[in-house]
Sequence to fold (281 residues):
Amino acid sequence: MRSRLSTIVPWALVLGSFGPAAFGQVVRVAPIVKQTPTSAGSERFAGATPPASAARINPASTFYIEIWATNVALPLDGLACVYVDLAYDRTDLMDSVLPATDSPLFPNDAVAPVFNDLTGTVGDTGGCQSAPAITNLGVSEWVLVETIQMTAVGLGGPIIMSLADANNIFAGTSIVGQLTNVAPIDIDFQTRSFQIVECLVAADCNDGVACTVDTCNISNVCVNTPTNSLCDDTLFCNGAETCDALLDCQAGTPPALTDGVICTDDTCDELLDVIVHTANN
Fold:
């Protein structure tokens, strides 16, 4: 196991029980894909399930890969530091944007992240708590460690996001009160996948126009089809309503009543859906 960097991580974080980490899964770390970053004040997510990761990212957009972690087994004293190597397998579809953004929970950097879009990696990304340590940080909760901005530069997928041990003598994942890092074998490095496409399901294609039928076609492109029947108010005498793909339902033009005969009373019969010309002597 690697030694903790005491000059970066305050000693107050490591004072306490000095027993070795338990064998088995101690920490879980996940790369969470988000179209918009986690808002300030929401860096802690209660429960055993991590925050949802997006299955789809909008084309030509800015998006974010967030590193989240949890302390799941003994020693359950909370996370002091979390450092990982992030990898993405489709360098043709996305580019990373420097710099990485520290979570306010882990503001101290023992090392700087190493960005390499050619290989699709961001190495040594993460951080450490400040002293005094937050009690049991990451126990029975997931906590945000780092945010990495990305740019969608292509279309397609799936793109696989994976994590591995930072493999840096100066940076590792550690538990409050422990003088050594958690062994990589005791960390569950999770993966996530997503696509850069316009849609995956019809719900992705909602254009806000009530009279269009919104579908996602086989090429993952939205199709919004104007459908006049969705505008029909079932009335005959006010004309046939139509659907405008941008302006929504438009009123119909009432049918012409006059027959050109001056001695008839011209009316519209809503019950029978006909124009009636009644002779008037």
